[in-house]
Specification:
By secondary structure, the protein is of the alpha/beta class. The protein folds into two domains: 21-261, Aldolase class I (TIM Barrel), CATH 3.20.20; 271-340, Putative flavin oxidoreducatase, domain 2 (Non-ribosomal Peptide Synthetase Peptidyl Carrier Protein, Chain A). The chain has helices at residues 43-51, 64-68, 72-76, 96-108, 123-126, 138-151, 169-180, 203-212, 226-236, 253-261, 271-289, 291-301, 312-318, 325-340, and strands at residues 21-23, 26-28, 32-34, 57-58, 62-63, 87-92, 113-118, 156-163, 185-192, 217-220, 240-243. β1 and β2 (26-28) form a beta hairpin.
C-alpha cells in the first residue's frame, strides 16, 4: 500500500501573502529552492545560497551505486551542516534495490528530503539507464520510486525533464506515476533530453501538469531574475521555483525572488555585498576542503561573481594562480577597491 501524499500547506504573513510551503513533513520558509548542480552545489555553495534566503538547498547529483559501495569520495558528498537545513539529497540510479539502500543511507545521515533524478541527460548517466533514460521506461521508473518510497520515512521528491521530445507526454506520465507511488513533490525542468540547456524551457508544461495532479509542483528553467520567478508562478500556478545556473556567482537571486514574490523592491546588490560573498565563499571552502584544494577551485569560481562588472577579465586573470587564502583575499579586496574608484586594474 502506497503512502498518500499530503496536500500543500501554506502560512501567510499579515498581508495574506503566502510565504511558506510544506513538502511532506518539511516546512519551507519561502518558495525558493536551489537546484542540484553537478560539481558545484557542495556544502560551501549551499551554505552561501542559504545565507541569501534560499529555503531548501539540494546536494549535487550523487551516485546510488557509489554510496552503496562505500566510495569515500561519494560518501563525502553527504557532508552537511546544521545551518543549511532543511537539506535535500539527490541520487541517481536504475536499480530499485540499490536506490532504496542508498536512500536509507541518506536518511540515516540526517537529510530531510531524498530526491530522485529523472532529468540528467549526460551520456554516461543515460548509458546506465539512469537520469532521463528512465523517462523512456515508465515501468522501471515506477519500480525505482516504489522501492525508495518504501525504504524511507522522510519526504520523497523527483526532478524530471519534459522527456525525450517536446510533447511533454513522458513528463505527464511520470508525474501521474509519482503521485500514485506516494511522492511528496515534483520538480519539472521543461526541456527535452535533446535540448539539454539549449532553447527555451516550455513553462506551459508546468501549468499542464499542475492541473493534472494534486502534488506540489516546483518550476525550474530560465529563471534569471526575481521577475522571471514571479512570471513563472503567475503563469503556471507552480508552488515554488527552483533556481540552478542563475545562482552560480549570484546567490543574491534568492533574496531578489523573495522580494518580488512579496511585491517588494529587490535589495540592491552592491559591490560591498559581492565582495563579502566572495570572501565568505572562499573562507567556507577553505574550511571544508582545505586551503590548497579550495584555492585551486577558486581560480575559476571567484570569477563567477564579477560577471558584468568593470575590468572583470583582468580580475579573472589575476586569480588564475592563487595558492593561499590570504593571496585570494588580497586580490578580491584590491579588485573591489579599484572598481569602486573606477580605476583600471593593473594600470
Amino acid at each position: 500500500m502506497y503512502f498518500r501524499a499530503p496536500k500543500i500547506v501554506w502560512d501567510t504573513n499579515e498581508s495574506g501573502y503566502k510565504i511558506k510551503m510544506k513538502i511532506g513533513s518539511v516546512l519551507l520558509e519561502n518558495k525558493t529552492i536551489l537546484a542540484p548542480l553537478a560539481g558545484i552545489s557542495n556544502l560551501p555553495f549551499r551554505l552561501m545560497a542559504k545565507s541569501y534566503g534560499c529555503a531548501l538547498v539540494c546536494s549535487e547529483m550523487i551516485s546510488a551505486v557509489g554510496l552503496v559501495r562505500n566510495s569515500g569520495k561519494t560518501l563525502g558528498m553527504l557532508d552537511s551542516a546544521p545551518q543549511e537545513k532543511p537539506l535535500s539529497v539527490q541520487i541517481f540510479g536504475a536499480d530499485p534495490a540499490v536506490m532504496a539502500e542508498a536512500a536509507l543511507m541518506i536518511e540515516s545521515r540526517g537529510a530531510d528530503i531524498v530526491d530522485i533524478n529523472f532529468g540528467c541527460a549526460v551520456k554516461k548517466i543515460i548509458k546506465t539507464g539512469s537520469g532521463v533514460a528512465l523517462m523512456r521506461e515508465p515501468q522501471q521508473a515506477e519500480k525505482v520510486i516504489t522501492a525508495v518510497r518504501r525504504a524511507v520515512k522522510i519526504p520523497l521528491t523527483i526532478k524530471m525533464r519534459s522527456g525525450w521530445d517536446n510533447s511533454g507526454r513522458q513528463a505527464r506520465e511520470l508525474a501521474r506515476i509519482a503521485q500514485g507511488c506516494g511522492v511528496d513533490a515534483v520538480a519539472l525542468h521543461p526541456r527535452s533530453a535533446t535540448q539539454r540547456f539549449g532553447g527555451r524551457s516550455d513553462w506551459s508544461l508546468i501549468d499542464a501538469i499542475k492541473k493534472e495532479i494534486s502534488l506540489p509542483i516546483i518550476g525550474n528553467g530560465d529563471i534569471a531574475t526575481g521577475e522571471d520567478a514571479l512570471q513563472m508562478m503567475e503563469s503556471t500556478g507552480c508552488d515554488a521555483v527552483m533556481i540552478g545556473r542563475a545562482a552560480i556567482g549570484n546567490p543574491f537571486i534568492f533574496s531578489e525572488v523573495i522580494a518580488r514574490l512579496k511585491g517588494e523592491l529587490p535589495p540592491q546588490t552592491d559591490l560591498a555585498l559581492r565582495r563579502q560573498a566572495m570572501r565568505e565563499y572562499l573562507g567556507e571552502s577553505v574550511k571544508y576542503i582545505g586551503e590548497a584544494h579550495a584555492c585551486y577551485m577558486m581560480r575559476s569560481r571567484l570569477g563567477w561573481f564579477v560577471k558584468g562588472l568593470p575590468h572583470n577579465s583582468r580580475f579573472r586573470e589575476s586569480i588564475k594562480r592563487v595558492t593561499s587564502q590570504v593571496e585570494a583575499e588580497t586580490l578580491i579586496d584590491a579588485y573591489f577597491e579599484f572598481v569602486g574608484k573606477n580605476v583600471v586594474i593593473g594600470v
